[in-house]
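Incident log, structure service

09:12 report received: a user says their structure output differs between two submissions of the same chain.
09:20 pulled the input from the user's history:
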Amino acid sequence: MEKKMDAINNIEKRIGALEKDVNKQFVAIEDRMKKVDERVTRLKDKVDGADIRAARLSERVQELEKERNTLRDNVSYPPSQSKRN
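09:34 re-ran on a clean worker, output below:
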C-alpha cells in the first residue's frame, strides 16, 4: 500500500512539473505571438504608407506627362505658325 502511495505522489509531482512546463511554454508562445502581431501591425502601416506614396507618385507622373505634352505642343506650334505666315 505504501508503494502505491509513493507511486501516486511521484506521479502527482511529475504532473505538477509537466503543468509548470506547459504553462511556461504557453507564456513564451503568447509573448512571441504579441511580438509577431506588433511586427505585422508595423508592416501593415508601412505598406499603407507605401501605397499612399505610390498613388501620389502616380498622380505626379500623370501631371508631368501632361506638362510634357503641353510643352511639346508649344514647341511644335511656332515653326508651323511661321511656315503659315
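09:41 both user submissions now match this output. Likely a transient worker issue. Closing.
09:42 reviewer note: The CA atoms of residues 46 and 52 lie 10 Å apart. The radius of gyration is 36 Å.
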